[in-house]
Amino acid sequence: MRTWIFVAVLALGAVAAPVAAQDDVENSKDHPMFSRMPGYYINEYDAQDFSSYELMLEPDSKKVEGRYWSIDYRLKEGAKKFGPVQIARNYTDLIVKRGGKKLQDQVDSGGGEAIAQLPLPNGKNLWFEIYVSNEGQDYEIHVVEEAGMEQKVEFTAMELATALNSTGSVALHNILFDTGKATIKPESSAALAVVGDLLKNDPALKLEIQGHTDNVGQAAANMKLSQDRAAAVKAYLVQSLGITAARLTTAGFGDTKPVADNKTEEGRLQNRRVELVKK
Predict the structure, then answer these.
(1) I need a surface site. Which of 49, 88, 139, 248 has the fewest CB within 10 A?
(2) What's the fold here for domain 21-146?
(3) pTM of the predicted model, to two decimals?
């Protein structure tokens, strides 16, 4: 009798397993802009606030950075299978209808890859790549929404002091401003607090706060913007952190002193900075 019960349990498990395996993997969901093909479930899922991904464009690949999704879909047992060309074009044609463009299409009846690009309202791009395999049984999408990395790790006051004593200056990329304005974003408070600690730990230290921009926009406007941003940092240190105003001077250099290539988003991100110079 026990043997019969054990065999029956195994049989029930064998029937139930495929059903459970066809549920979406835990903590997964479709990309906010793209639904899935009917009859497919999410087999693997990865979403990251910031990552890099290499698009396999021909003849040269392209590396993009920003918010990243990788979603692998698999056909449910008994569901209707769609052909690879139909699957890929459902996505790429949607992107084209929204104002994007198809960059590559190498999909046939067996499977393949397609890549598309969609301009976003913020001036950046969404990059989309789809791989279809097993004659449409499986497909995976990779989506990157261009964005700069949000700085989470800050210098300590001691590290800032070491850098200033060693080189005389230090560039900070984690003091952030509203686009085109000198309004300091709230998330900059941690970085500014470290600068305040630096000055409090060394009462004799005097700094020049320098503003720098990328080359987007008019040079004259960038020059004024950089000066205003340097002044905003000084005002914050004086008014919010109690630093004596006489210890701080300001200067703005606009886009005249780039440290990276302004032709790339990564380079422009490096050029938008606040520098502290020991006086």
Answers:
(1) 49
(2) TATA-Binding Protein (3.30.310)
(3) 0.59
